[in-house]
TrEMBL record, chains A, B, C, D:
<keyword id="KW-0521">NADP</keyword>
<keyword id="KW-0057">Aromatic amino acid biosynthesis</keyword>
<dbReference type="GO" id="GO:0005829">
    <property type="term" value="C:cytosol"/>
</dbReference>
<feature type="binding site">
    <location>
        <position position="48"/>
    </location>
    <ligand>
        <name>NADP(+)</name>
    </ligand>
</feature>
<feature type="binding site">
    <location>
        <position position="286"/>
    </location>
    <ligand>
        <name>FMN</name>
    </ligand>
</feature>
<dbReference type="Pfam" id="PF01264">
    <property type="entry name" value="Chorismate_synt"/>
</dbReference>
<comment type="pathway">
    <text>Metabolic intermediate biosynthesis; chorismate biosynthesis; chorismate from D-erythrose 4-phosphate and phosphoenolpyruvate: step 7/7.</text>
</comment>
<dbReference type="GO" id="GO:0004107">
    <property type="term" value="F:chorismate synthase activity"/>
</dbReference>
<keyword id="KW-0288">FMN</keyword>
<feature type="region of interest" description="Disordered">
    <location>
        <begin position="361"/>
        <end position="383"/>
    </location>
</feature>
<protein>
    <recommendedName>
        <fullName>Chorismate synthase</fullName>
        <ecNumber>4.2.3.5</ecNumber>
    </recommendedName>
</protein>
<feature type="binding site">
    <location>
        <begin position="301"/>
        <end position="305"/>
    </location>
    <ligand>
        <name>FMN</name>
    </ligand>
</feature>
<keyword id="KW-0285">Flavoprotein</keyword>
<dbReference type="GO" id="GO:0009423">
    <property type="term" value="P:chorismate biosynthetic process"/>
</dbReference>
<dbReference type="GO" id="GO:0008652">
    <property type="term" value="P:amino acid biosynthetic process"/>
</dbReference>
<keyword id="KW-0456">Lyase</keyword>
<dbReference type="InterPro" id="IPR020541">
    <property type="entry name" value="Chorismate_synthase_CS"/>
</dbReference>
Length: 383, 383, 383, 383
């Protein structure tokens, strides 16, 4: 089993290794009738791609997505959407020393021990490069969610010991893409950037975290118990490379809160519906969305590939060796992780929108059984 | 939900439409350590491809497969195998009349009614062209099965009213690929070819059936009740385009057999193990393989695309129209269906080999935990 | 993997062996708001239960279902419906001779070889008794389908060489439950009964087949390619104990039909929608329901448990022995198989109704987000 | 979809509501040949059950499990294991006020809004009572893991602001069950108990956290990317009622660690195999187990049911009301959560042991194809 699939109704299936010929992603279960082109996807890919700033790897990848199927005249048809992204700038040579001498805290040893072999160039299948597929699929999910009034955003709220103060969703929308760190609090962003530079100079790397939020999520998403919204978000976010913690709502702080303080009383909203006075519950109650914003946080450990000298054990020679991972690597993961976290959030939510019948699985508009041709501008009969 | 996935541990995910840019297939769950190149796959693709004889469509498709991932130095690595097959010879123009006037007994109307739209060129996603993906995946499955001593083969045993006599597995291996019809009984093959020519001249098409057999299947495959070997073969074979019946063992004839006649007494084999005296049960007992050959039959209806004039209802104009489906089409499906049936048989069996622990899911040889580099001839350390 | 689960959204999970303490079935994914009690289920269980006539086993099982969860005040709540059916009349003693001497063409040997052991009493997990769970789950599915205007029915159309003429859906509804054979053609039913008696007297058993039909199925159900409606029906029906063939539409006869004859021209119905002139396609086109009735046939081989002496091989003593299976067994399977086939048809259809968004997965009426209490007659606030 | 299933090969399916007739759980995919009786399960159930101490609810439930299937002569048979646990002490009356006036931060509102109704007695399906099923299934998983040398344990490491110092695995085994709080550090346990008493007196409740660890996990478990070991643990643990955070390895602290500090150098162990010098990575590298202990932490918020007065909005009367949740409730969740966390850890690990071929899916010993009868002490032939 490869673990290359995500989603029950909105299904993503991926392939590709860091230094292979191409990355690829098949999205199944996207309803028909969604206007979609490569441009809708490219924006998020550009936010994730390497080489975009001084604090990302210098590997030069255009990450241009090519849609191979599932579209007719600019609209989805309900059939699988195949996407391929060519790898252009793979330089495997410098990974040869690590073939039998695993890099510390990478997947080198575990992959080799599991499979007896591995794609060793650039970390192969274990590389964060794989998330290019997730972001491509997530962009489609986002577009579907936007139609339903669901907006989501992430930003970097911690790098090392530099923490950003709480920001509003509007601030996230406005500021998080203004700086290379993707922190929605401009002053903190500068501080973060300085701190990253310090570690970079030392040949080291540093951890951090990403805050995410979704607005407009209707009440009723989630399939408790094992597939509660929090459980599935847990899986989605813990799959993000280098993640060591997932929190929603109060997260780890909840350990110190009393029931009275954390519980959110009910009042009525303008339409006379019950609505929580506060949102300490993080938008999920009993494993199901409450209609309040869903928010949480993901911790990413420091990149394991660092120029500093480390010790490894070469299983072929039987000798301990000193190694430096000189490749082109990010000194910190959260900035490029922001679109990845957004993608996983979007994929989780859109799957539950389908699972709860909020989105029709066959088509985004019209009624089942209608066989219109409105999505066919090229249909000569329509002209 | 797209229905583009097959298998629980050996997982196939496909995309592509008849006249789209490319067909594609991701195989997940293939263990590491299997020697594999495009050549291993191309042979079966060539047996399925159009334009190979007078009784297949003249569409010119090289059907050259390109493996994008999952291989290192000629061996599988246990990671997803992405494959892409370009479409080269799509001519959609002549399908325009059918956009709103569905061809009789095709998927034109049902796809449009389900999704409100469809890829109309060449039948789009409903085209038998999609099976190119299945055959590519099936070729990998066959190679894995061959390592375990499992061989399988199919041949055409009926075209219209021309039925082949029973043939042995050896005859199937020897003769089925000698003629364009893929019937392992040479005289019958000639008769079938004549019959096909007659229908072709009349602008009509004809049905037929495919017999399949697997040898060397170990006892113990199958997960009764809902995932019994027969149930999963049922799903696999009924997914083959144009299939209207699936039978195994005595099939429909079993209705007329008594228990005493059909039951297979037990005797001992040379090693002293119980073994059935006959194989009227078709290699499956209680939903689990018995160790005897698994055999059965699949009926394929006549191709629905025929030059003869047919009546359709144009939902745009509201008028009944006469139409001729003038595309390039097969007059009969079983000959090109043979590698497709073999592929589905192989995919079903390899999945159960993994599910029953007969094949290690991580690697085809070595022990879990061994991190050898034997599959890396290009590893400079190995030279 | 046990193969004890069926369905993607309407999910059935079963447990139980023929001579175990109880049979059980958990239905997940049934929407809330369906009025449901044990009475809704008991009717079909009674049609399946042993001891109901001279041509069924005399084992005395009341097969009384007890619902353990998922109901509030007589309506489903959207949470899992747990059901348990006690086994009352198990007499394992006479199965002892078969522990190491497998009965011909049963699952005795395959289960023991797969697992190294087995529940040997009454055939254990391989017994047709397991279908009591399917029928219980199917009864819920039928009730959901009926709300949507979908009706389905099966009857016995062949026993040995006695075949019933084609009957209408109305005749099936009217006559199939009038006689012990469950054949909707009264004269044929008598003939079948005579034939069964003959085999019974000889200590033998006989095969047969069941015809099924569903009316009112909307266009658009099915997820081609691997989860086409025909593929999933294939799995569902081939899982029915003793099944050796599944056919839909023309079935095996399609091999001899030309394209022109089999193709169904299109005309307009009264509402001006395209509709096929005939239904030779069996209600499924391109793997998706066409709106026409879905019909097909399932062949069941003769019961393997027969009084006639058979030879087996005792793997413990290493000796060939003669055995008679003297238990209480049916001389023919289709009569009690009728509710089982209906159940599998219902389970397949209801799953696709959910997968295509025709049925809301959370609730059968009302809108998502409404938190009414109308299903709570016992709610004191409502009185 | 109900979300009542967990696991891909070792599959758990549950039913039951807090005040329903019974809870139930079907375990599918447990290999044959495991010695198993109700006693093996009851121990963990007793650790989870209510009424065991002053800091748990006083509801009186014996939680006696009854195995209904899947066992022959004291050994598993590879077929589904059905288990039922009767509810004995449900008193729904005091929940009537909450039918239309949702309790703060419970699942009352979200369930009603999703399904339009709910089982309101005792919280129904959203009650932590449901975890009785998980613990029953987890006990079987633990027994399988123990055979493979995998041991696991959890203990309470934080209640409110009282944190336990780090303890060894051996200390966890020795001390965690000695006190009512289930904290393996005896002095801290006393402090925790005092703190709980304080909140209890105030009519309030308090949060806390659980630390877990697994020893003896072989290298190679996990299916990156989406089904990495960390991702699936994330899902498993976030499904635990009241969980707001999941961490493994350094958890949220990783944000402040540099790469050099967090990376674990490699050395050789006594057998000459590469082994990490430290275990800051938490036993998972690249999503796959490294052979080092797996450890992490789960945060549980304070119980939402508290005697203190809270405000709610009655959607029927349209009035804001004050309510007190006077039922029998725990003032803190981690103590009874310990066996639940252990169960989810065990279920996740055993599933991957099967998925990676470390455990044979059909049987725990012997070879596939062997049809011995050694598990049948009651077999008269064996005596």
């Amino acid at each position: 089993m490869n673990g290359n699939r995500f989603g029950r109704l909105f299904q993503v299936t991926t392939f590709g290794e860091s230094h292979g010929e191409a990355m690829g992603c098949t999205v199944s279960g996207c309803p028909a009738g969604l206007e979609l082109s490569e441009d809708d996807i490219q924006g998020d890919l550009d936010r994730r791609k390497p080489g975009q700033s001084m604090i990302t790897t210098s590997r030069g990848e255009p990450d241009a997505v090519s849609i191979k199927s599932g579209i007719q005249d600019g609209y989805t048809t309900g059939t699988p959407i195949g996407m391929v992204i060519q790898n252009k700038d793979a330089r495997s040579g410098k990974y040869e020393p690590f073939i039998t001498a695993p890099r510390p805290s990478h997947g080198d040893f575990t992959y080799s021990a599991k499979f007896g072999t591995r794609n060793w160039g650039g970390g192969g299948r274990s590389s964060a490069r794989e998330t290019v597929n997730w972001v491509a699929a997530g962009a489609i999910a986002k577009k579907l969610l936007a139609r339903e009034g669901i907006e989501l955003k992430a930003h970097v709220n911690q790098i090392g010991d530099v923490e950003a103060p709480a920001v509003s969703f509007e601030e996230m929308l406005e500021h998080s893409e203004e700086n290379d760190v993707r922190c929605a609090h401009p002053e903190t962003a500068e501080e973060m950037q300085d701190r990253i530079a310090e570690y970079q100079e030392e040949g080291d790397s540093i951890g951090g975290s990403i805050y995410f939020e979704a607005q407009g999520v209707p009440v009723g998403l989630g399939a408790p118990r094992f597939d509660s919204l929090s459980a599935r978000l847990g899986q989605a976010m813990m799959a993000v490379p280098a993640t060591t913690a997932f929190e929603f709502g109060l997260g780890t702080e909840a350990a110190e809160w009393t029931g009275k303080d954390r519980n959110d009383d009910w009042e009525f909203d303008e339409e006379g519906d019950p609505v929580p006075v506060e949102n300490d519950h993080g938008g999920i109650q009993g494993g199901i969305s409450s209609g309040e914003p869903i928010y949480g946080e993901v911790t990413l450990h420091a990149p394991t590939s660092i120029p500093k000298t480390q010790q490894t054990a070469d299983w072929e020679t039987g000798e301990l060796t000193e190694e430096q991972v000189i490749g082109r690597h990010d000194p910190v993961l959260p900035p490029r992780g922001v679109p990845v976290v957004e993608a996983m959030l979007a994929l989780t939510l859109v799957d539950f929108m389908l699972l709860s019948g909020r989105l029709n699985p066959d088509r985004v508009d019209g009624q089942p059984g209608e066989y219109d041709t409105e999505y066919h501008p090229s249909n000569p009969n329509n002209q």
